[in-house]
Write a structure and sequence with these properties.
- The protein is an all-alpha fold.
- Strands 1-2 form a two-stranded antiparallel ribbon.
- It is elongated.
- The longest helix is centred in the first third of the chain and has 37 residues.
- The chain contains twelve helices and two strands.
- Its main location: membrane.
- Belongs to the SAT4 family.
- It comes from Xylaria multiplex.
Length: about 350
Amino acid sequence: MDPNEVPAVPAPNGIESNLIDPYSQQSILVAVTAVTLTISLGAIAARSYTRAFVVKQFDLTDYILLLGGGLLIAFASIQITAGQHGQGRHLWDVSAAEFSQVLLYLNIIEILYGPTMFCAKYVVLRQIEVIFLNHQRKKFAFSLIRILIWANLFFYGAIFISFILACVPREKIYHLTVDGICINTNASIIATSAINVVSDFSILLVPIIAIWQLQLPLKAKLGVATVFGIGILANVTSIVRLYYSVELTRTIDVTWAIIPVAGWALGEFASVIVVACCPHFPRLAKHLFKGDESPVYRISSSNNTTNSKKFARLRNRTPNNDESATELRSFREPDTDRLAGETAQDSGWGQPRTYP
């Protein structure tokens, strides 16, 4: 029997299979993909331009974010391709041959999920570290960030490997009649979604702890917190994705039930990427609308390091004249409270602070 003319599963009672022109949710997925890619890639472009041409401090985190953007494009492209082979239709409206293709694409999508999400979350965590904790390495929040980076690396690395080795041989992933062994894919999907929720909440908690330890006016604290508060969107999307992942494991109609999971995964990517990029938006806006060409970047670490070294050199010199003494008095070693306060000021939050 030709697998192109046989439905993947029998239709429920009272329903006929339609392999000719079945209804599909593909248009919904295409719309969600277009919106989330526009937001994500636009945010990455804005951050990259700011880092490369405004503050001129393009570093490893920027390259990692660009890698994440490329992986997101691949993730979204395969989602759309899977829709052309039956994803988004009821399973009884998908031929057996098409279903094999969908299973392969779904496996590739799960493989891409881990590295893509890690790239985005790594940038968020490093950004929190640079803004709030660059000179406070003994604080608990700094250690927590390092722990979260390594935990996310191991977690998403494990997801990556587990879906590569989902079946041995791999052919069994999409040819169910082939002899071999497979992991419990349903359990892996639920575990991935659940741990991802924990990861999102942990990342949201760190900047809140760091911000409230700073010596800033409440208005400025709330302003800086607003930037990372956008991370609540990531928490919401990950929770909703977990719900639909559980629903996916409870139905045989997987090609239909996978669409909400795919859509909310794209939303989760977009929200995390926006969190990684939005602290740079005020700086870009100032550059574009106020003509600020200054390369000074107040939340970066390299300027802080340079200033610290200069301070040390000045401090070790003996001010033999009024000019040297004046230079030493006029230079202050940077502190995190001030940097965060200036970040809030750049963003339009609170009133400018005066430092003696």
